[in-house]
């Protein structure tokens, strides 16, 4: 019995040493992971907080730019770039929060296993999760750097924004109601405004014409009426005249020409006596009648006067000059 006891002593010692190595290795790995997680967590919070503040600043700039009548195309491109970077930052921040906080909750809820083999499996899972979090954090940092760089580039834009007038907020006249759907047409209104407020070079003899074409009940009259009610348009033209296709007939056209001649004589003392003529037709405008109206207008209307024609889609597009 004594000899059997002496032979079994080395086996006990070997098993004890294996257990000791396992415990020490587990403690070392847990300690290292603890210190790494503590140091990386502060970095994660810093990046997350910086992204939140940058997104808020970008949102303020974009909202302010959206409420201004900006005519500089380069500034509009900068706003688009900032908007794209903001959306990219929002996406990266949401993806990181979903991945990082889910892994953090899983780590808290995980039951500590006393088995060495299961501990190794959990350790490998932790490595994979850490690599995934690191990659997502790098993507978030890249998005933050890009957004911060663009915000610095638009410093001049923020300064110049105050020099552009605010857009007029008229929600009922700025939307098209088609059935149960509502569509905004702010872009079309801005195009018409740019056409009307654009000043021709000195000596230009041709009167500019903007055809507004489209099917019936598409909102052409609503669009033009809103633009004509704009204070900038009313201040730019001395008179706004609305005509229908019936007014282009011979007898009414003669009366219209006489009226324009009187207006022209009265506006000789006013250098800015420009007129805006809006012609609305139920269908297509008769080309011959339009030519007579245009020829008469060139004789009696001052330079800088303009036409807007509202009609169908087939032949009315050729009326623009």
Automatic annotation (TrEMBL):
<dbReference type="InterPro" id="IPR027417">
    <property type="entry name" value="P-loop_NTPase"/>
</dbReference>
<protein>
    <recommendedName>
        <fullName>Rx N-terminal domain-containing protein</fullName>
    </recommendedName>
</protein>
